[in-house]
Automatic annotation (TrEMBL):
PANTHER family (alphabetical): ADENINE NUCLEOTIDE ALPHA HYDROLASES-LIKE SUPERFAMILY PROTEIN
Protein name: UspA domain-containing protein
Domain UspA per the UniProt entry, residue ranges: 22-144
Organism: Coptis chinensis
CDD domains the UniProt entry points to: USP-like
SUPFAM superfamilies per the UniProt record, alphabetical: Adenine nucleotide alpha hydrolases-like (SSF52402)
Gene3D superfamilies reported in the protein's UniProt record: HUPs
InterPro entries the UniProt entry points to: Rossmann-like_a/b/a_fold, UspA
Amino acid sequence: MQGFNYMYGDENGGGMNGYVMKKRVMVVVDQSSCSKHAMMWALTHLTNKGDLLTLLHIIPPQTGLEKGVSDSSSTYLANSLGTLCKASKPEVEVEALVIQGPKLATVMSQVKKLEVSVLVLGQKKPSTFFSCLCMSSSEYFVDQCINSAECLTLGVRKQSRGLGGYLISSRWQKDFWLLA
């Protein structure tokens, strides 16, 4: 079964009494608050003991002087978010990846390479100006991932302060309100 890693053993880690399913959840992260909300939602709502949470930070191709500064800040961002996840839920394995390349192609290749079970993306509230004319590049990216990835892909947006909960988008449902 693609997307799931199987491990043999019982709940104490020994013997051959049964299967323990271990899933890999990947969250695309950046410096925005929406990606941090999506990361925390994935950590609290999708991961269980022994699962692997992969934080993927993508940096665009760069040249010359920008490269050193961007690489160190990207590595710092990914590592600090990984530390936050590990402190919040220590029973989940956390890894942080920083990869340079085109955003959509990099996400698709990592989903396939790592056999991701669930891909989670942060969504921004669409601006009323853009929603009348066209999708923003961020909305387009999330939509492309939802429709193209070879795994369950969820767009997560934190609801406004007054309402609470999250709006979840998938291939089958757009802006499903989850009060949790």
